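#help-structures
NK: newbie question, is this the right format to request a structure? protein is Putative membrane protein
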Amino acid sequence: MNKVRSGAGKKALLAALPFVALMAHTAPAHADFRVCNATQSLVGVGIGYRAKAGWITEGWWHIEASSCKTLIEGPLSSRFYYLYAEDAERGGRWDGPVNMCVAEKEFKIAGVTDCVARGFQRAGFQEYDTGEQSSWMVQLTEQPTADGPPAPGTNGQ
């Protein structure tokens, strides 16, 4: 690598840095399913989806206030995904009408029937139709309620 020795060369290099940073920021997003927590509380999130072997629910992802986490990495393989989240500090939740299984601690559960009989809890998940996009993001906002509208979802593009 050539070293920049002149003052003019250093100035030109420094002037180019914001452009390089901008290019890195505008690069295409990776395909995945992300959840962003736009609240001021820690949130626990579970996801449900249909795999080749049947229904799967997984959790808990702990998402700090004002941050995002990737729940599924890579291009999405299903059209529909289901999300349930709880505000760990204030007790609210983002839920929906689709019953699936969850557990108190970290979990990956096959099947969505007989949750209680199998030693799990039942929770209502909200359905997100990704329209077969390869990437999707859900934004959790303040005021989670059992009766409120679902958190908005968008394709990742």
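mod (FA): yep, format's fine, and the tokens are attached above. The radius of gyration is 20 Å.
NK: thank you!
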